[in-house]
Design brief:
Radius of gyration: 22 Å
Number of strands: 12
Largest sheet: 6 strands, parallel
CATH topology of the largest domain: TIM Barrel
Number of helices: 10
Strand content: 15-25%
Low-confidence stretches: none
CATH superfamily of the largest domain: Aldolase class I
Shape: elongated
Structural class: alpha/beta
Amino acid sequence: MFELPLSVVDRVIAIALEEDLASGDLTTEACIDAHAQAVAHAVTREALVVCGGTVFARVFRAIDPSLVIEPHVPDGTRAEWGARLWSVRGRARAILMGERVALNLVQRMCGVATRTREFVDALPQGARARITDTRKTTPGLRALERYAVRVGGGRNHRDDLGAAVLIKDNHVAACGGVRAAVERARAAAPHTAKIECEIESLGQLDEAIDAGADIVLLDNMTTGDMAAAVARAKGRVLLEASGGMTLARIPEVAQAGVDAISIGALTHSVRASDVGLDFE
């Protein structure tokens, strides 16, 4: 259901391995016999949502294609403390050389998936709103983090600056107003591109709608103002709520009737989950 762009993943892994192994692995090469075999298991040190099985496997195979990786828990599954997620079998040196990179990436991915699931679970039953990420991702890791958001039950916002028009407050200021910014975007953007405009007041909502926006981003509004915006828009545009979205606030924001709730904290400040690699 959730696909990872493997060419992008492999580039991320190649850079990470080069960073860690450019000078070799002095400890492993000194201590471990070149022909020694081993089995190691990735084990959770806390409850989490599993994410990154493909990445885990590809890190080790990038070092030694003969390594055998066995998945135990599929991505998207909740796992409790002590659960065995994936195992790797083969040359001990290769396993040790890939351990840190593999764990760094999957710990981050599990952390994003787990945090996203918490926000998704906070939505009231039957709510129309969807939880989405933002472009506030770790440089170089966007594809992995966005995949983790999907695994956690969230949705992705625009992938990059060319994916859609998103007129922010600085665009509005530079253009001289909401209407001017939206009209310019409508005139210049391809017909396939959606146009979204950020607003900070209900007055700007009318401007954005009249100028032809498809989506309006309600930035740092009170829940009452969001509900007023929903009533005022009357379904003519999609409404996205953003800014200050804590877990505790999600139910009331969803009940205000917005279509999407975007949360930068799903990726920009998430805590990595605790996953270790234990040798037999």
